[in-house]
Amino acid sequence: MQKIHRSLVSTLLFISVSFSVSAKDVTVMISGGFKAALEKLAPQFEAKSGNKIILISGPSMGKTPQAIPARLARGENADVVIMVGDALNNLEKDNWLQPGSRVELADSSIGMVVKQGEPKPVIKTDADLRNTLLQAQSIAYSDSASGRYVSSHLFKKLGIEDKVESKAHMIERIPVASEVAKGHYAIGFQQVSELLPVPGVAFIGELPEDVQYVTRFAGAVTAKAKNGQEGKALLNFLSSAEAQNTLRATGLRSVTTKLPVKQHDTVQ
């Protein structure tokens, strides 16, 4: 009986040691729009694979040192990057990514928030949205793809570019909703998936469809990945059918078709 017991203990120890030796840390540089979804899905991937996900947050673009391209340029390590599609294209052109490793993950629309407790404006139509923006004391938008669209295209489409220029402000690096929650700005625009996790704000809704801008999120394995195989397995999991309910619950849209040209990778 003691021999059987010792044999069982030895087997369990061998399995435990083998598992710990084979487990890998998968380092992911990720922009805010997909972060909430990955945080919810990470435990499921880690339980299935035995690997651990290490998150490094940063904008997909912009001039801040925390931006993903800046992090890679100064030598920070990552196995995977998950970010806005056009910014990922730029990394691919500059040979930061393993060829053929890109995986389309989700689409993200732009929404609007106000501080919790404040009156909720209506933005169901272009006229509603125009009126809301004209009446707002201040407007905040991000320094990433959604913000570039708001500042460079949305105001112009609504015919109010000159009227809101002095009260519209770009927020670098930090979530726009967090600034609205503090009362620094009356309304804020960002991708829905970045607005929903922030406490202290009320989500008003998405932009009207005819002035909406949908951002594609995608991921790829970096050219200098230490655990590239594990990174690709993570991307495949995030794009799988079993991940879709969680993606949608965090404000993202499942990738069903290629985005129209006017919405896909066009904001510079």
TrEMBL record:
<feature type="signal peptide">
    <location>
        <begin position="1"/>
        <end position="23"/>
    </location>
</feature>
<dbReference type="Pfam" id="PF13531">
    <property type="entry name" value="SBP_bac_11"/>
</dbReference>
<dbReference type="InterPro" id="IPR050682">
    <property type="entry name" value="ModA/WtpA"/>
</dbReference>
<protein>
    <submittedName>
        <fullName>Substrate-binding domain-containing protein</fullName>
    </submittedName>
</protein>
<keyword id="KW-0732">Signal</keyword>
